[in-house]
Amino acid sequence: MDPAQRAKQLREVLNHHSDLYYNQDAPEISDQEYDGLMRELKALEKVHPELITPDSPTQRVGGSAKRTAGVLVAHRVPMLSMQDLFTQEEVDHFISDCQEKLGEGITFLVETKIDGLSMALRYENGNLVTAITRGDGRTFGEDVTANAKVIDDVAVTLRHPIPYLELRGEVYMTDAAFEAVNERQELLGKKPFANPRNCAAGTLRQLDAAVTRERHLSFFVFNVQDIQGKDLSTHEEAYAYLKDCGVTVIAHYYVCKNREEIWKAIQAIGEMRGELPYDIDGAVIKVNDLALRAQLKDTAKNAGYQVAYKYPPEQKETVLREIELSVGRTGKITPTAIFDPVRLCGTTVSRCTLHNQDFITKLGICLGSTLRIEKSGEVIPKCVGVVPEKQPPDAQVFQIPMVCPVCGEPAVREDTADIKCVNLNCPAQLERLIGHFVGRNAMDIKGFGVVYVHDLIAEGYLKDVADIFTLAEHREALIQKGIVGKEKNTDKLLAAIEKAKANPPDRLLTGLGISNVGRSAAQVLMRHFGTLDALVQASEEEMMAIDDIGPISAHCVYTYFRQPHNLAVLQKLKAAGVNLVQEVAQAPEGDLPLFGKTVVISGTLPGLSREEAAALIQRYGGKVTGSVSKKTSFLLAGEGAGSKLEKAHALDIPVLSLEEVQAMLETAPES
Questions:
Q1: pLDDT category, 29, cuts 50, 70, 90?
Q2: Which one of 33, 297, 586, 663 has the largest count of C-beta atoms within 10 Å of its C-beta?
Q3: Digit-coded pLDDT (tens) for 85-106
């Protein structure tokens, strides 16, 4: 691939995952995968410096500041990141560089790098006055003072007051605190947090300090950012002074004089990873002498006096005891390994996905195999191989049966690696399909929880999605059996179902769960055909003639509406009064103010959800996409727009507020 194209691709991918990690606390890839992509981009930019752009993740510290827990506060001292190192040779190079610039006699500190959220504390005359997150690292962070004050490890007052002290540390969660929070989430029927860092970040940024207190966050200080009224010479001396002031500092650190001592300290920290009560994702090596640090130049993103050594992914061996087969909404049969519990990166795991038959065959996985399980700071553990010398005698590679494990009907393998149950009445598919159908991205029937779906299917009230709209006929029986609750709850759900009948049919099409047809494709199809009846009659060629509809999606839709069962469901929906006609703009398409324009939405919009904003843009002829490119007509930006806003500025893409877009539409023809 052309270097410019690859650099552009890497920037887009890294910016996307950086936004998920820093701003949304919802990472989709592991630290190791992210670091690999970042190294590739750095190498490209080193060879081709002309490819460096302002929005490149190599030029930024981290995320954007969000007004979630409080107002934005200007940084007095930058909260920079650290360069990541992955080999002993890279560590030796950093040490040699420091010794060459600062002298052979300098000392270093090696300490644990906990996977948490950075926070700065400002003290005036011994009292904590402000706590802020890193935000963008240089300009602004979020004010989280109220939440910080209820964290047990945060000193609200200092034993030895001085005029001013600014400290930087890490907010994190112990494994025990994280497990307790997720146990409570499950009891309340809420989604559990993916990992301790996400939970800590979300907790620190939310509005209720009582929630922060309840979740028992932890905190330690790892740097003095600024100090007035006290002279400190070394980082080691600073830690001793802070402890004397009642400040919690990092627990494990080593003062080292040479590269041998430094590497021994890194190894010692690596060996304690599984024993610590919290997650660490590396070891930090920093120059100990505070005065000398200024001679080591910072980059736009990283502090010059310190680096982070990242350990290779942690692996454990464990014995495979069982392979559990489950059926998803689309009929895909997914094998899951059940193995002897092992502890990885601070959490105990006993299962992981085996993906499909090709994956199982490639690794030679048999019942009784000794698996190598890996988890490097990621949400989900994965199997990376088997130990050949520990394979059981006469072992046979596991074969997924060509029979649905739920309904017993034959399964088929299509063009992909997936094995699927094609029985549309399979109970496993029905439960997931109805859960998807009533969900927020489809028909959005408020209050229709998964427990109700399960019970209504079990009691025989739901045999397909159309049966949802006949539940009112069974009102008395539902109340008597208490499936949804008493009269008030039952009527509330029935009213939500009745209201959903008027939804635009693109939501209905999304809810049908047709393979390769998500919300965006459903909107495009319904805008073009206008009614579901017209879509049912359309050929694959007619669908493929529409922009953004490819041959796979067209084939899936065409095939779906050639199945008698699906047509019967459509007739039942029509008989129940469900809306099958899309609202079509009354003005000629070409007269619509946003016709032909491609819009990206980012950030929080005042009084309007992102979904509602997308519907508004589409109603006036516009097209909504997920990423900023040269083809973007404008960015609709709200608070916390993040990397998309930066990219829009870099590409000179117009940035409009919601008010500006609404003003643009006020004079438009009615639609």
A1: low
A2: 33
A3: 999 999 999 999 999 999 989 9
Q: What is the pLDDT of residues 135-185, one digit of tens each?
A: 888 888 889 999 999 999 999 999 999 999 999 999 999 988 988 888 777
pTM above 0.70, yes or no: no
Smallest Cα–Cα separation from 328: which of 256, 411, 217?
A: 411
Confidence of residue 187 (pLDDT cuts 50, 70, 90): low
Q: How far apart are CA 478 and CA 487, in angstroms?
A: 9
Half-sphere exposure of 511 (CA within 13 A, CB side): 29
Nearest C-alpha neighbor of 491 from the set 447, 439, 449? 447
Token code pair at residue 95? 């040490």
Measured distance CA(118)–CA(4) in Å, rounded: 34
175-187 and 196-205 helices, crossing angle to 10°: 70
DSSP assigned state of 83: E
Instruction: Identify whether the C-beta of residue 59 lies closer than 8 Å to the C-beta of residue 301.
Output: yes
Task: Enumerate the active-site residues.
Answer: 113
Rg of the chain (C-alpha set) = 28
Contacts of 540 (CB under 8 A, 6+ apart): 551, 554, 555, 558
User: What are the tokens at 335?
Assistant: 């094998």
Rounded CA gap, 602 and 632, in Å?
13
Query: How many beta carbons lie within 10 A of that of residue 586, not counting itself?
Result: 10
- Percent of the chain with pLDDT strictly greater than 70: 91
Token pair for 86? 């992955």
Confidence of residue 591 (pLDDT cuts 50, 70, 90): low
The answer to whether the CB of 119 falls within 8 A of the CB of 132 is: yes
User: Does residue 72 sit in helix, strand or coil?
Assistant: strand
Residues in the chain: 671
- Collect all residues with Cβ–Cβ distance below 8 Å to 5 and sequence separation of at least 6: none
CA–CA dist 495, 500 (Å, integer): 9
CA 609 vs CA 583, 584, 638, 656: distances in Å = 20, 22, 11, 16
Predicted local distance difference test score (pLDDT) of residue 69: 46
Rounded to the nearest angstrom, the gap between the alpha carbon of residue 147 and the centroid of all alpha carbons in its chain is 23
Strands (E), 41-177: 72-74, 81-85, 108-114, 117-124, 127-133, 140-142, 164-172
The continuous run of DSSP H or E covering 609 comes out as none
pLDDT value for 68: 44
> How many of the other CB atoms lie within 10 Å of CB of 532?
24
| CA dist., res. 480 & res. 497, Å (int) | 19
If one counts every other C-beta atom within 10 angstroms of the C-beta of residue 649, the result is 14
Structure tokens at 591: 């007269």
Phi, psi of 418 (to 5 degrees): -85, 145
Alpha-carbon span 477 to 527, nearest angstrom: 40
- At residue 24, does pLDDT exceed 60? no
